[in-house]
């Protein structure tokens, strides 16, 4: 895939802003759009043949779908857990903005069926992963136990100076239970917003070898390969991640050159007890 399709700079404007989609030639399954609404405005949408997870990034919003109405608020992605709504295929929905709001709309083609579900902070599973300068915090919004058809969705936060998606791993071959074929998208936010993160994307055979300097609001498409992320000193890094592919089990393989870090991590955990 051409490099310019892997990196998408932050879009500008108001309304529904397409970022990633199969129609744009970037993915096979995943789509991502940002919905920006001014206070007091509304947006009417329909999921069509996709299931959609709407994740509130900032603001106070109300989502109405299938006779249900949910309200959520969020100061920003660095302040507490997310609020979201799962929307199955063939679902009409309406978003009302009580303040300026920004919502990520993540989609993937799915079989019909399912129900509208609110993803509230109390239902989100949080975990701390890694040690020392590869420790990060992860929130699972839609994991394998969630009644979605294809999507997996979550959020990762790197403290300043820390790595994530580390040791580097990949999920590009359908070989369960060792690896699953899942494409992925990372949507970034940086605090303070004038900072940056570094996204690496490489394959073991050297065919893919890219590094991206990502800014606040940028997006990276990960069709294959290892994909670690680094936060520079002085800047916290957040990314919303979404996966879709063959199955919903997140089986992955570590880069064998760096898998030894997992063993070191276990030793450090034992010493800390």
Describe what this molecule looks like in 3D.
The chain is mainly beta. The protein has a single domain (12-272), classed as Jelly Rolls (Sandwich). The chain is 6% helix and 47% strand. The protein contains 2 helices and 22 strands. It has helices spanning 3-6, 260-272; strands at 7-8, 15-20, 31-37, 42-46, 50-65, 68-74, 84-87, 92-97, 101-109, 117-119, 125-129, 136-142, 152-158, 163-164, 169-170, 182-191, 197-202, 209-214, 219-222, 229-230, 236-245, 253-254. The strands form 4 sheets. Strands 2, 3, 4, 5, 6, 7, 8, 9 and 10 form a 9-stranded antiparallel beta sheet that branches. Strands 1-19-16-21-13-12-11 form a 7-stranded antiparallel beta sheet. Strand 17 and strand 18 (209-214) form a beta hairpin. The protein is globular, with a radius of gyration of 18 Å. The chain starts with a helix and ends with a helix. The model has no long low-confidence stretch (mean pLDDT 96).
Short description:
The protein is mainly beta. About 5% of the residues lie in helices and about 45% in strands. It has a single domain, classed as Jelly Rolls (Sandwich), CATH 2.60.120.10.
Using the CA coordinates, give the radius of gyration: 18 Å
- Write down the secondary-structure element order: HEEEEEEEEEEEEEEEEEEEEEEH
Number of strands: 22
Basic shape: globular
Largest sheet: 9 strands, antiparallel
Spatial separation of the terminal alpha carbons: 46 Å
Strand percentage: over 45%
Number of domains: 1
By CATH, the superfamily comes out as Jelly Rolls
Q: Structural class per helix/strand content?
A: mainly beta
The CATH architecture name reads Sandwich
